[in-house]
Amino acid sequence: MMQADDAPPSQQPPNNTNPLLPYPLFDLVLDLPHAAASRPASTTLTYPPSNNDTANIISQPLPSQLLEIETAKIARFAFPSYEDRSNAAEVSNRTAFLQRTGGPAVDPPYNRHDLYLDQVYNISSDSSAILPSHHVFSHRLSNGCIVHGHVRHYLPTVEETQRSNVGRRSVRALVILTRYSGGGDRLYRSILKTCEALIRKERSLSEKGEEEIKLFLHELFREHVNFCRDVSSNQGGLSKPRIVSMSLIEAGRGHGLFGTVDCIKFAIPPSFLHEREPEDVSSYSRNDMMPMLRSLGVTRTLRLLSALISEKRVILTSETVAKLSAVGYGAVSMMGQGMLPPPSVFVPVLPPGLASLLSTPSAYLIGVLKGSTPNFIDLRSMVPSLGELVIFDLDSIGNEPFFVGMTNPTVTVPDLTRRSFEDVGDASLNGMSLPDMLYQDLSEVVKLDKKQMFWQGAVQEKLGMAAEKGKTAARNAINKGLKYLKDKKRSMDGKEEDEEEEEAAEKPDNANSLTKLVGKGNYFYEQGFLNESAEVEARIVFATFFVCLLGDLRVFLTQTAPGTTPVADRDKFMKFRANSGDLPGSSMYNLLQNFLRSNLFNQFVDARLKELQLRRPVPEDAPLFSLTANYHRSNKIDFVANNIRQSVRQVATNPNLPGKYLTSWNEGIRRRVLDLTSTQAFNGDARRALALLTEDCHESTSILIDTIMILWTRMQEGKGMQWKKALLALQIFRDLLLNGPISAVAEAIDGFASIRIMKSYADAMRGQNSALVRAAASEVYNLTVNLPVLFAMRREALNKQRMIKDPKPSPLRKETRMIKGISQFRNVHIALRPAGAAVAPAPPAPTPLGNDLLGNEAPFNNAPQPANYSSDLLSMGLDTTPQEPQQMPNPFDMAAVTTLISSSNLRIDCKMRKQIFATSTLWCSFTAASAFVTPSTSGLHATSTHRKPTHQLNVATQLMPQISQKDIDVLSTKGFVIVPDFLPQEMVDELRDDILKLRTGSAFREAKIGQDNTNNLNKSIRIAETCFIGRNRPELTRITGDNSVRDRSSGLYDILDGLCDSLVDLCWKESEAKLDKSLTELLYAYYPTGGFYRRHRDAIPNSASVLRKYSLLLYLNRDGWDPERDAGQLRIHLDGGGDELPEGATPNYIDVDPLGGTLVLFKSELVPHEVLDTNSERFALVGWYNRAVTASDIGNLGDGGAGDMVRVGMLGVALALVTFGVASIIGQ
């Protein structure tokens, strides 16, 4: 294909002055009406912002004058099923008919292109009319530049009704034109969905949506330019994800208060951020290949590869435009894995008006849309006159390709899966030939993809399916037995009866169920779904094949004389391949013969010679072919098949490879959604997990798409005993629709047909369960079709989220002394309610929107409720099983409580004890002061009024991680305590990600040693990086946002405050000064490979660190930390010394493995410790709980001389603040 850089000088595109700068994010965005629309409709064009800030950062956008004259051609590609001449004849015939019948002669109100929502989103209808539809086309402009158009069809809302399911209208198309040929499909698809949602919001709320879309696109364009500027100035690599966060997309620019909650995020591909290759072959290689493998299978994929390498003319046919586009780009991506350019004519989807391109004599790859109307190209009539062709029908699975005009297809297009006697095999592959290796590896990739695509659940979840199958088998056996008995009776009576009843009995109950169609109709949630892990494996397989074949330049290049340019040596190459087992007569030999005679081989050789001459470094996101070949040449590794297989996999699995984060995102989000929609009990706080999921889904290029995919699959699986999967999926879908990004609205409309099917759900084994599913589906359906209500509810949800994240400060100060230990009223109720009592149900809401099982508004008021559920989203972890009432005294009768406690004959369980003591604590708080309660008033002994409630009775901390009383006792006696699994792994991973974000934002500094004026950098004692954290630190909020895992409710700070409260009793028991939360010190510690911290103590006399009472270490390392391999243990010294081993003492210590979630607490001034050398990156949170400042501290510090004056001043200010705080409390 002639690229823009190969165009004649007079037709060079304007951006070739700097050919290696990255392209702009887009050159034009169009909103096109259907060419046959019955009503006049305008075309909207949005160009990039006009400014001069992009000079030397990105290539200049294409001229608007050039693109405007191409609008008509672009419209043809946007509607590939439309044909101008056929439609003109149809309009002429219709006009003549209306004239003859006396109807309106002109401007008929509607035509066949005006459709209802139920027609276009209908799974069982003609596939050519199905929405949603997304495809990509390739078009050469008049100046020779090639652009790629990402197209999304949508059905606009009728303005008169503002309901999406009322009225007929014609389909429109949103188109993004870009010069990027690969790697951005996820991004552009998400942008188009966001644009569609903004258009629908404008139509529903009567706003100026065009201006909002323009602002949105321009802001996104500028953010891409900023990222390119950062990469070009070496301020950031390509391995980390580049996320654009767009604020106020839905609320509008005039509502700045919603900036923290109204956002949508886009992940920019790494290949969009740095210098590009002029040939653009590497860009084609970044397209996805799994849609091609799913449509063609392994055998036909290898036949397609053979046809393309042999430079044959290839036609792909299908009834689905999205499939044609995906398979076409997958085919050129397959070629790009070997740095082979696409055919000279590459048209993924051919409009009917350009059917003459099929007569092109040169090699091509063209997609032709099938159909029965005159709008479509009739291949049967054209094929006989076209010459040699290879036709692949993508809709017929398993059929061989059609070879037209070829006398011997086994030679012209060799079958790489066919073995012959000439196939000797490669000795380095244990006698297996190169095609055999390719076929075997691709088969494994397809198996992996199927395993992940069908989302097979855990063994526990399959039990329900097994039970359903057993039930069906038992029913069939009974029916057969009854039929046998009836047949025997009829034979004895000599009667013959109709057997329709028996046949109907044998038919399964759900044979006519439509649930199996849920999620269908959207190609990109079926065969076109992006499975990143399988995609990586496919790239590894094809890269291994091509590197084995063409990676070693020495096998096909020969230098005729020293200092001369090498030339291609075909004979040398064939001899090398013969020695590798590709003998004459084998399929691989025939393929190589075709390849060496083609222009494709010449282009490949010229490109490799150009690389040798330029000697440019290989980009870190280059195709695996280039990275692996460069790795072998740089390390002087032989190009042997086994070595190549290992090298390719090693390069591909490098965690620092750009774009590698997509695999972890893909796997992580699927695991989380599967857990939330499982029939098994959810392990954790389901409501909080759902809130986190919704927050993560604001990243709409990958996470949202993966989530929606699993929700459709769960709805499809929700039959029989698995009905709860469907209900949970609908509830999560509703939450995304109300609280997720605005593109979730487009996702809901895409699934309109599936949601409508779920409205008639009847596949559960119990009718009331089916009613729950139908109720959930009905509300999602109503929100989808009534967009004004949906967007009004979304704005209300935005305001609620804003109030949660940024509540208005109250003018009244909350008195915390009186309600110590009880932070929320629901905990008061748990403490005070009599055992077995239940709260009376609230009356039904007057509106149809009540509270659903997730705590959100939903119309489940009239739906029957199941009796009991497990601890999942349905029950939110509350046990509703009735308990046998347990006799308790009046909790406010202190005398009775005292008698109950002192009675030796009455056994009090732990639950009752917590209720009694929490109640007595609350009762004492309601008196003037607990220290002045008299025995006659309280009913308790006078000495007990001064005792504080023990830690295990603190009701408020029961909802968060905490240490037990046993751990506190160990800390008191030994001076240290180790608490494994203090934090769940999920929160450990979030905190580690928080560290990585802060390191990326340059918030970390090299760690120093010493105190105060002796603080200095000494790498012989400490190699680490630290970042101080705490509440109200704007420098951290700018990097991670104001809803990080540290700041949110029940987050890190709340957990550590609760831990501090747990140590209060210990200080009181040991007659120590109480801890002051306001003086708590917290920091993140990052130890690189080779990092350490030699022996030391945390509290040093005569320094500010003397306030440190307890030190805490919370390890945040990855799951799977191997102490022997990764090292980095904490060594706690028990020899009684200080910063050094006492003279003459024997070393005595214990080592603590830094496993993720482990908590270590110790007394700061008593326990010397050190961090041993680490062999891997080591993450931890370090903190110190400090006691309150006293006047004696200032006096002690003053003995240090003039150098300590700063410390004296700081402690004096702290003491003054503490004194002022006490005075203000007393004054109230």
UniProtKB/TrEMBL annotation:
Domain of life: Eukaryota
Pfam families given in the database record: 2OG-FeII_Oxy_3, DENN
UDENN domain location: 25-618
Cofactor(s) this protein cannot do without: L-ascorbate
Sequence ranges assigned to domain Fe2OG dioxygenase in this UniProt record: 1078-1187
Keywords: Dioxygenase, Iron, Membrane, Metal-binding, Oxidoreductase, Transmembrane, Transmembrane helix
Region Disordered: start-end pairs: 1-20, 489-512
Comp. bias intervals (Acidic residues): 495-504
Ranges annotated as spanning the membrane: 1205-1226
Coiled-coil residue spans: none
Protein name, per record: Fe2OG dioxygenase domain-containing protein
Source organism: Cyclotella atomus
